[in-house]
Amino acid sequence: MNAGSIEVVAVSFDYPDGTRALRDVSLSIRAGEAVALVGPNGAGKTTLLLLLTGCLFPTSGTVRVDGMELRPDTCTELRRRIGFVFQDPDDQLFMPTVWDDVAFGPRNLGYGEAEVARRVRAALDAVGAAGLAERPPYRLSVGQRRAVSLATVLAMEPSIVVLDEPGAGLDPRGRRALARILLDLSCTRLMATHDLDLAVATCRRAILLDGGTVVAEGPLPDLFADEALMDAHGLERPASLRHH
After folding, report:
1. DSSP readout, 198-242?
2. What letters, b where the CB count within 10 A reaches 16 and e where it falls short, cover 105-136?
3. First-to-last CA distance in the chain?
């Protein structure tokens, strides 16, 4: 199976209080795809992302990344292949400088400083943040912090990047800048978002999750054009598609 593939088979997940967040979810993402995960609040989007990245484990069912099944004994290897960009960049940035934050992951894997420096420069270049290397993260704008948090993941050179609400808090200029960055990435991308215009700009396919189940999936313009479907699940057709 090609590097960058995701397969979820009949996955359910219950939180310790008994809340069932996911119910018999099955989906497949091919290597190199850019997919939007959409749905109302409480649909289970973030829970699904946490399962894919090994932060949680299914109550039942199977998750495979690059053909490897997620289990406690494989999660360390899988986390090298899949990078998670958190909804709040402040959950990801904690070092004195941007350079140190982006270098943290490669250093933790035991790479030498020459390789760490190569990865940091490449990651910062990829998100247009090369000039921020010596800045403290708390001095950055929201858009800059989002770019740097993505760079911390790219420095690990994952085959898959998973993003939780990457457009939250961004102004229109910041969303356009983020869209350009995401479009330039060659790795597989799965983005959970309420910003359907950002999804239109960066993804080819969408998966609609509601009540912890997959209720629809398909080419993004077709799915978003179904007004009855969108309305039934608390979503509005994105502005960028309303003229079609």
Report:
1. HHHHH-SEEEEEETTEEEEEEEHHHHHH-HHHHHHTT----GGGT
2. bbbeeebeeeebeebbeebbebbebeebbeee
3. 37
pLDDT of residue 1: 43
User: Do strands 34-38 and 188-192 pair parallel, antiparallel, or not at all (unpaired)?
Assistant: parallel
Extract the runs of DSSP E, i.e. beta strands, from 52-135.
60-65, 68-69, 82-85
Name the residue with higher pLDDT: 243 or 25.
25
Do 194 and 10 form a contact (C-beta atoms < 8 A)? no
Q: Is the pTM of this model over 0.90?
A: yes
Cβ count within 10 A of residue 11: 24
With contact defined as beta carbons under 8 Å apart, do 199 and 36 qualify?
Answer: yes
- Answer whether 97's CB lies under 8 Å from 134's CB: yes
Beta bridge pairs of residue 206: 36, 218
Could you tell me which of 34, 70, 8, 30 has the C-alpha nearest to residue 183? 34
51 within 8 A of 63, measured Cβ to Cβ: yes
The domains found in the chain, sorted by start residue, are: 6-241 (3.40.50.300)
Are 182 and 34 in contact by the 8 Å Cβ rule? The answer is yes
For the stretch 198-242, pLDDT in tens is: 999 999 999 999 999 999 999 998 999 999 999 999 998 887 776
Q: Tell me the one-letter amino acid at 124.
A: L
At 160-204, the pLDDT tens digits run 999 999 998 888 888 899 999 999 999 999 999 999 999 999 999
Q: Is residue 6 within 8 Å of residue 29, measured between CB atoms?
A: yes
Sign of CA dihedral 129, 135, 137, 139: negative
Q: Please classify residue 53 by burial: count the beta carbons closer than 10 Å to its beta carbon, then call 0-12 exposed, 13-18 middle and 19+ buried.
A: buried
